[in-house]
Design goal:
Elements (H helix, E strand, L loop, with lengths): L18 E2 L11 E2 L2 E5 L3 E5 L8 E6 L3 E8 L2 E6 L5 E5 L3 E2 L7 E3 L3 E4 L11 E4 L3 E2 L1 E5 L2 E4 L4 E3 L3 E3 L7 H7 L10 E2 L2 E2 L1 H11 L8 H7 L2 E2 L14 E4 L2 E5 L4 E6 L4 E6 H9 L8 E4 L4
Parallel strand pairs: 1-2
Antiparallel strand pairs: 3-6, 3-9, 4-5, 6-7, 7-8, 10-13, 10-17, 11-12, 14-15, 15-16, 18-19, 20-25, 21-22, 21-25, 22-23, 23-24
Helix pairs in contact: 1-2
């Protein structure tokens, strides 16, 4: 649920002094501005709650994603991600204004931008799954980026090409460390795992667990019959979510293992029930397309 009354600040760009132009009439602000779209050119870019290096990280932006800037001040850009509308602050130096329509995405868990089309050259930039690229040429087993550099072609998928089984994507993250606010193959949290996996399957997802619980799929009827769960069902607690691998096991990024792990649902439920998250709040089943 939202942290405060009125439009959710996580998804709506407004402050006491400034708001996005499209929110005119919905919120009060002395100034409304149109946004300017920028492209992320860092491998991964933290989106922070405040314009301070040590501020809490709410999520991350990946290479090639678009960030709409409403204000740039003192080295910080305030705006929102066009992928999921999340609002926050990022370092302005990691954004570029040159538009680039992606032609491909990274389909492997992780890959690299090489300075030359040669796997023996030192990698310059690591890229995570779902990073967005514009490819302008090819040589041998490598594809050339519009910004320079080369990526191993087999690690790419054409923009708009999706997998059918998002659970298999989630399983690729097994063992990746838990990171609060992370949505990168070097570290991610529970809702980040859901969002990243669904994106590879062409399913849009909001960022946080409460948003996902409110918008994804259809809730199984109460009382929940835990013997009838299926692969791909999403299991929600207060502030936590997991993905069913089969009728008995769940994969989730969690602070108990401090990594993405697969475990029996009944064991996880028993442990989580003793925590602040409490008991399962719902199980959502995605509608088959």
């Amino acid at each position: 649920m939202s942290r405060e009354r009125g439009p959710d600040h996580r998804l709506n760009a407004y402050r006491d002094d400034l708001a996005a132009a499209h929110l005119r009439g919905e919120v009060n602000a002395p100034r409304f501005v149109e946004g300017a779209d920028r492209i992320v050119r860092a491998p991964v870019l933290p989106l922070l709650r405040r314009p301070e290096p040590a501020a809490p990280m709410d999520t991350q932006l990946l290479y090639g994603e678009t960030f709409r800037v409403y204000e740039e001040k003192s080295g910080w850009a305030w705006g929102q991600s066009l992928l999921d509308d999340y609002v926050g602050y990022v370092e302005a130096k990691e954004l570029v204004s040159r538009p680039a329509t992606p032609t491909h995405t990274v389909a492997a868990l992780r890959t690299f931008i090489y300075p030359k089309p040669d796997l023996k050259t030192r990698p310059a930039i690591p890229l995570s799954m779902n990073a967005k690229l514009k490819i302008t040429g090819a040589r041998g087993n490598f594809s050339e980026l519009d910004t320079g550099g080369w990526v191993f072609t087999a690690h790419l998928a054409a923009a708009g090409a999706h997998v059918r089984d998002f659970v298999a994507v989630a399983e690729e993250f097994t063992g990746v460390p838990y990171l609060w606010g992370g949505r990168d193959s070097m570290g991610l949290d529970c809702s980040g795992l859901v969002q990243m996996s669904l994106e590879r399957a062409g399913i849009a997802s909001l960022r946080d667990t409460d948003m996902q619980e409110a918008t994804l799929g259809e809730a199984l009827p109460e009382p929940i019959d835990f013997t009838k769960l299926a692969r791909g069902d999403l299991v929600f607690w207060k502030g936590h979510v997991g993905i069913m691998v089969d009728a008995e096991r769940m994969i989730h990024a969690n602070a108990h293992h401090m990594r993405v792990a697969v475990e029996r649902l009944d064991i996880a439920m028993s442990r989580i029930a003793r925590s602040e998250a409490g008991h399962v709040t719902s199980i959502k089943r995605l509608v088959k397309r």
